[in-house]
Design a protein that fits this description.
Length: 51
């Protein structure tokens, strides 16, 4: 039985194209996302210590 070959998406000369247009929606900085993640982890850690 022969396996089907998986095909990769076509890319020009191995380069991916990313669109520079920004769509509508909320803009959140990466620092804010990291801060929220670290704060959530710290909050959960404190809840486990107290409970």
């Amino acid at each position: 039985m022969r396996r089907r070959e998986e095909r990769l998406p076509p890319t020009g000369a191995g380069l991916l194209r990313y669109f520079t247009e920004e769509g509508p929606g909320i803009k959140i900085s990466p620092k804010a996302v990291m801060g929220f993640a670290v704060g959530s982890i710290a909050f959960e850690f404190l809840l486990h210590l107290m409970g």
